[in-house]
Specification:
This protein is an all-alpha fold. It is 65% helix and 0% strand.
């Protein structure tokens, strides 16, 4: 089924045969990757009202309703289909809560303008500093975050998005290439280039423990 793993294919076949109890098992397999995707793309202006779990639960309801359509014609791997529906739901929730403010000119520079809400340099910087700094360095975080954002903003937009997809969302190279509609070889080259650039950026920040 559309390049799914053997385990996912078996679960989909069981569900198609009427075993709806396997639906929860299938969703659990992909939950953490969806959570990472939403956390990177959830607009900071709505984070006091929404969290990643809220978005994902609504996406699961949508996916459940549309599952027969997917089973009839699985045009993409199940996880990418589920990720796409989750991104659509995130777009919808952003519109609901932000309205015309969605494209506020004061937003951080987006990483890539693709089919989902954009991850921002601010979100990526926060993720990086959360992993790479010690608690004793908390006072330095605000300044470091600004420096890291500025450096990320100077990277090629597609390279940044490949970095987000591969390193933070943990998509495979084939999945990232499919999401971005580029060749797998091109996605791999961009990821290597983006990692090299990120290491250069991090090496220039004081107090960062590089673990990339």
């Amino acid at each position: 089924m559309a390049e799914n793993s053997a385990e996912t294919t078996d679960l989909l076949r069981a569900i198609a045969a009427g075993d709806r109890a396997r639906w929860g098992e299938l969703l659990t397999r992909h939950h953490e990757r969806l959570k990472r995707m939403v956390a990177l793309r959830l607009d900071q202006r709505v984070q006091s009202r929404l969290d990643a779990s809220d978005v994902i639960q609504e996406a699961y309801l949508e996916a459940s309703a549309r599952l027969p359509e997917y089973l009839k014609q699985p045009a993409m791997p199940f996880f990418l289909w589920l990720r796409f529906l989750t991104g659509q739901k995130l777009h919808e929730l952003h519109r609901r809560h932000l309205g015309v403010k969605m494209r506020d000119a004061g937003r951080e520079v987006s990483l890539y303008r693709g089919g989902l809400p954009e991850a921002t340099s601010a979100a990526l910087a926060a993720q990086l500093l959360g992993h790479l700094t010690q608690p004793s360095q908390a006072a330095m975080r605000a300044e470091m975050k600004l420096q890291l954002q500025e450096a990320l903003n100077r990277m090629d937009a597609l390279d940044r998005e490949v970095l987000v997809l591969r390193h933070f969302e943990q998509l495979s190279n084939a999945e990232a290439a499919r999401v971005l509609d580029i060749q797998e070889a091109a996605a791999s080259k961009r990821y290597i280039r983006a990692l090299r650039r990120l290491k250069e950026i991090l090496s220039g920040l004081p107090g960062v423990q590089e673990e990339i």
